[in-house]
Amino acid sequence: PVLRLLEAQLQEQRREHEEEIEGLKKQVDAMQEEVRKQQQAFLQTLQLSPEAQVEFGLQQEITRLTNENLDLKELLEKLEKNEKKLKKQLKIYMKKVQDFEASQTMVPTERRPHEHNMQVAVQRKEKDFQGMLEYYKEDEPLLIRNLIT
């Protein structure tokens, strides 16, 4: 039984390794094709006159900047959409806080002292943070929710 288990694990690792090798081979092939295309474009550029080389270089840079601008525009749209969603959530939370505060003022005054006795005092150690904090992308919604509340 133990030998079969170890043999099964070894076969599973071998299969995963072969899949990984196959994926890496595909990446290498794609990169080699890209290098070949770039070499071909470079050789064609060398055959051009100096003016044509400058123009080709400018066209390449314009294309790169256009693609970069499109990526940035897409990111901006995504961030604006997220901002709208967060503003809506903030309004909802603010309404809940106001409703909660309103309900607290409606509680009879003789019940309030007991509620204050039930609250737990939390002491926090003060720290001086400087700079930016690092976090995982999947923790972003939780961080935002905690910042809002």
Overall description:
By secondary structure, this protein is mainly α. It contains 4 helices and no strands. It starts with a helix and ends with a helix. Residues 3-103 form a coiled coil. This is MYO5B protein. Keywords: Coiled coil.
How many runs of DSSP E, i.e. beta strands?
0
What is the residue-averaged pLDDT?
A: 84
Query: What is the strand content?
Result: under 5%
Termini Cα gap = 54 Å
Oligomeric state: single chain
- Major β-sheet, in short? none
State Rg: 31 Å
Query: Approximately how much helix is present in the residues?
Result: over 70%
Number of helices: 4
Structural class: mainly alpha
> Quick one: overall form?
flat
User: Which parts are unreliable, with pLDDT below 50 for 5 consecutive residues or more?
Assistant: none
Order of helices and strands: HHHH
Write a brief caption for the model:
The protein has helices at 2-47, 50-106, 112-118, 140-148. It is mainly alpha-helical and 149 residues long.
